[in-house]
Design a protein that fits this description.
This protein has 269 residues and is of the alpha+beta class. The chain has two helices and eleven strands; from the N terminus they run αββββββββαβββ. The strands form two sheets. Strands 1, 4, 5, 6, 7, 8, 9, 10 and 11 form a nine-stranded antiparallel sheet that branches. A two-stranded antiparallel ribbon has the order 2-3. A hairpin with a 2-residue loop joins strand 4 and strand 5. 21% of the residues are buried.
Length: 269
């Protein structure tokens, strides 16, 4: 006799087991997929916030750097303004002395003495030596110390270019002019072989115009300036010397910013 067929309940149970297994497996798969997707979104969101925070930090650092740079520039400008104000309070300005200023006696080492009236200059030819002097006044607020000189015989005046510093001759001794006081500049050319001697002597004998460039600064050697004076005959000579009127023609500030310019905006040189 054939074996009895399996009971329906067992068959159904086995079917349910398989089906349930499939359902459970399907249920696990869907839940796991959802959990992975949510984690990815959370990680992506966290990455976005981290990027935003880094960008915000970089932007803040840039703003701080720009603010610091602007503050430093403003501070530097303030320092420069204060420095220029301090220097202006100590700046010497050499000008010709006034007509009513007392006469100056200028003595040279070889015994020659020149007398300078107000607003004048002297060029004297004595024993084949050239002696020169200018009567000066300091119109600035600081002590003026004269460091060097440069002379040239020329009929033109301020149109001549600024001389190079290498062309200046050093004073044998520093000459000073106190603020709002009078003083003088002096120099001599005693060597006939000097390249300037011939033209200067010819100018003196022909009563031609003479240019004198005076290099001076403050007592610390700063604020160096070139002042150009012109000597022109104003009266007949007395003996072998003659007196000329001294007039200021031009200034060059050697340590200023930008240098001087003409009204058209161009440099005079």
């Amino acid at each position: 006799m054939a074996a009895p067929a399996p009971s329906g309940s067992r068959h159904v149970t086995g079917w349910r087991h398989v089906t349930g297994s499939r359902r459970v497996t399907g249920s696990h798969h869907v839940a796991g997929s959802r959990r992975v997707t949510g984690s990815a979104r959370l990680i992506a969101s966290m990455s976005d916030w981290a990027t935003i925070a880094e960008v915000a930090t970089a932007g803040g650092t840039l703003v701080l750097a720009l603010a610091t740079f602007s503050s430093i520039r403003a501070s530097n400008r303030s320092v420069r303004v204060a420095e220029r104000s301090l220097l202006a309070a100590q700046r010497p300005v050499l000008i010709p002395s006034r007509d009513d200023d007392l006469a100056e006696l200028v003595r040279f080492g070889d015994g020659v003495v020149l007398e300078l009236g107000g607003h004048s200059g002297v060029v004297k030819l004595h024993d084949d030596n050239l002696y020169m002097a200018l009567a000066l006044r300091n119109g600035g607020a600081g002590l003026a110390v004269i460091h060097g000189w440069h002379v040239v015989a020329a009929s033109s005046s301020a149109s001549m270019p600024q001389p190079e510093l290498s062309e200046f001759r050093a004073q044998q001794r520093d000459l000073y002019v106190p603020a709002d006081q009078t003083g003088f500049w002096q120099a001599a050319i005693r060597d006939p072989g000097d390249p300037v001697y011939g033209p200067m002597r010819a100018a003196v004998e022909a009563r031609e115009r003479v240019m004198v460039d005076v290099l001076y600064g403050d007592y610390e050697g700063l604020q160096r300036t070139i002042a150009r004076f012109g000597l022109a005959t104003t009266r007949e000579p007395h003996g072998d010397d003659y007196t000329e009127r001294a007039d200021i023609l031009r200034y060059w500030d050697l340590e200023g910013s930008g240098g001087r310019r003409t009204p058209s905006g161009e440099r005079p040189d």
